[in-house]
Design a protein that fits this description.
two-stranded antiparallel ribbon; alpha/beta; 7-stranded mixed beta sheet
Length: 300
């Protein structure tokens, strides 16, 4: 991406943040839906990839059903962006009224134990809104990791935005981030990681909807190294502005096996929890990229 293109991208995102934040909520919802439908009708690569991914999640769906799901998926994805643009200006009291998370006692109890907690989420609904719920409703600050975006100024916007919601944001730069996350956990803190896609050499191969995919080893490794509780969380949308979710039971560290074997078992358990949430609400899974290994091999 050239410098001029980077400036254009950054300017467009900045315009979106400024303009959408000021729109009345019904107008923002309607705008998001119009944009989503326009993108969906063009049948570009992202829409086709979303349909291909959804075909694995709902294997008995015919072409018409997949088109319905992908249209709903694009509307859900654009809802995420519209909400995210508006989150910094939202009344914090709405984090209690508009977000309902089942079994939140599992998170409260794990935090009260002082062990530290790792929350692992897939790209379902609005994970930023879930973070705002944790800081605003539960009063629990947390640390997360963000991949460096191009241009750098856009990455800086995302970091500033998430920090305005009460999050500590670390750049995704390997060992340094891992060490900081481990320190936060040892001091009894909370970290939240989006963990349903990892194409790096360190990714753990899992069975996901009947085929091989790779997911990050980080959550399982951190739990083993620090003794923190690993809790998968899945989310889904209701009618605007409601969002729902579930905190799944702790993924325990196996008593036997090597570190690699334990990591594989734990990451598979996280993948299974993700699969349950995604299967229940496939239209809210914002996976517009290749994920399964055979799709990646086909591209190569």
């Amino acid at each position: 991406m050239g410098k001029a293109q980077e400036r254009l991208v950054d300017g467009l995102y900045g315009l979106g943040w400024a303009a959408v934040k000021k729109l009345p909520e019904p107008a923002a919802v309607a705008l998001g839906r119009r944009i989503a439908d326009s993108v969906w009708k063009r049948r570009g690569k992202s829409v086709l990839r979303l349909e291909s991914n959804l075909a694995r999640v709902v294997p008995d769906a015919g072409p018409e059903r997949l088109r319905e799901l992908s249209r709903a998926g694009m509307r859900s994805y654009m809802r995420y962006w519209m909400e995210s643009f508006r989150l910094p200006a939202m009344d914090p009291r709405r984090f209690s009224t508009d977000v309902e998370i089942a079994d939140e006692h599992l998170l409260r109890e794990a935090m009260a134990s002082g062990r530290g907690v790792i929350v692992a989420l897939p790209h379902l609904a609005n994970w930023d809104l879930a973070g705002a719920w944790a800081t605003g409703h539960l009063g629990i600050p947390f640390t997360t990791v963000a991949e460096r975006l191009k241009p750098e100024s856009l990455y800086d916007r995302f970091v500033a935005y998430r920090e305005s919601l009460g999050m500590e944001v670390l750049p995704h730069n390997g060992g340094a981030a891992f060490g900081t996350l481990a320190r936060r956990l040892r001091s009894g803190g909370l970290i939240c990681l989006v963990a349903d896609r990892d194409l790096s050499a360190s990714g753990v191969e899992v069975d996901f909807f009947g085929a091989a995919a790779r997911m990050p080893a980080g959550p399982a490794l951190l739990a083993q190294q620090t003794g923190a509780a690993l809790l998968p969380v899945t989310l889904h949308y209701g009618e605007t502005p409601r969002m729902y979710g579930r905190i799944h039971p702790e993924v325990a560290v196996p008593e036997a096996g090597t570190r690699t074997e334990k990591t594989a078992v734990m990451t598979q358990a996280v993948a299974d929890a993700f699969a349950a949430g995604i299967a229940a609400h496939p239209e809210d899974w914002h996976m517009l990229q290749r994920l399964w290994l055979d799709d990646l091999e086909e591209r190569a």
